[in-house]
Amino acid sequence: MAESKTKFAEIREWIVEHKLRTVGCLWLSGISGSIAYNWSKPGMKTSVRIIHARLHAQALTLAALAGAAAVEYYDHKTGATDRYPKFLKPDNLNKD
């Protein structure tokens, strides 16, 4: 019988295949959550609220990119994934 993947394994595989889309969605949710949080604080100017939201989302995005880099490094170190993307054929890469 073939092993069925757990939900965690399926989610991890999707994240590994779509790293930039994941980081973009994380940025979007971070900036919208930060804007919602900052809007609940009275006494702040709108420009300050937007600047704070951007800074929070930027920090979250940098953390996500660092996490994606760590996952990529781990996968290459352990040989869990192919070295080249699916659309590149390794036999055509070193032609002079």
UniProtKB/TrEMBL annotation:
Biological processes per GO annotation = mitochondrial respiratory chain complex IV assembly
- Keyword Transmembrane helix listed? The answer is yes
HIG1 domain segment(s)? 1-83
Q: Where in the cell is it found?
A: Mitochondrion
Q: Which UniProt keywords apply?
A: Membrane, Transmembrane, Transmembrane helix
Q: Which domain of life is it from?
A: Eukaryota
Q: Which GO terms describe its cellular component?
A: mitochondrion
**Ranges in a coiled coil:** none
One Pfam match, given by its short name, reads HIG_1_N
Annotated protein name in UniProt: HIG1 domain-containing protein
